[in-house]
Amino acid sequence: MLPAYAKFGVNTPAAALFSTLGVSPASLARQLGQLYEQQHPEAKYDYRAILHWLLTIEPVDLERVDEFQPSYIRRLTRILASLRPLEETVQEGERTWEVIFPIAGWQYYSGEHTLQTLHVGHTLRLSPEPENPYDPHAIEILTESRVKLGYVPRYLAPDIADRMRMRPLQAMVSEIRQPPGYPRVHVQCVDRW
């Protein structure tokens, strides 16, 4: 790991992995490494956990951290656009497409306040947010009464947006995890034709 530290100008295992994956400049890799280690001090050398964290982090998660410049958030979004989490959650049938995913940014919106009204099978709305400054493919997840719960994860948003342009998609709560934690609520999104 020491050669990676020297080559990329970083100082943690997470930052070295991020740099190896193309996250630059070094200051961005170092900031992400520090954020990862603050959130997961017990998994400092667990490269699978580090990679999973990087692939599932969302712009909204970084907006809440003062040190991240908006240009760095946009850069990271572009770098990670071609990468996907390790678990593939998409299933395709002859005339169906289905995906299950956690709500991104759940902890920053009204999810916990509306949790008592949600249940497995509860219908949700998907609403494109093309004016989002960090991700033009962003899709909000709302309750039927338009309460914002969060977003479709960045790595799925382009696919879901393409499908939404062709026909309406069904979205519903597929899982609610107890006790509180993140990710808390998962969504099932289905396209039938």
Describe the fold and architecture.
The chain is of the alpha+beta class and 193 residues long. It has two domains: 2-80, no CATH class; 90-192, 2-Layer Sandwich (Alpha-Beta Plaits), CATH 3.30.70. It has eight helices and seven strands, in the order H-H-H-H-H-H-E-E-H-E-E-E-H-E-E. It has helices at 2-8, 13-20, 26-39, 47-56, 59-63, 70-80, 111-114, 157-166; strands spanning 90-92, 96-102, 124-128, 139-143, 148-151, 170-176, 185-192. Strands 1-2-7-6 form a four-stranded antiparallel beta sheet, with no helix packed on it. A three-stranded antiparallel beta sheet has the order 3-4-5. The N and C termini lie far apart (50 Å). The mean pLDDT is 87.
Give the helix/strand layout.
Layout lengths: L1 H7 L4 H8 L5 H14 L7 H10 L2 H5 L6 H11 L9 E3 L3 E7 L8 H4 L9 E5 L10 E5 L4 E4 L5 H10 L3 E7 L8 E8 L1
Antiparallel strand pairs: 1-2, 2-7, 3-4, 4-5, 6-7
Helix pairs in contact: 2-3, 2-4
SSE order, as H and E? HHHHHHEEHEEEHEE
Poorly predicted runs: none
Number of helices: 8
What portion of the residues fall into strands of 2 or more residues?
15-25%
Biggest sheet descriptor: 4 strands, antiparallel
Strand order of the largest sheet: 1-2-7-6
CATH architectural label of the largest domain: 2-Layer Sandwich
Cα-atom Rg, whole angstroms? 18 Å
Compute the average pLDDT: 87
The number of domains is: 2
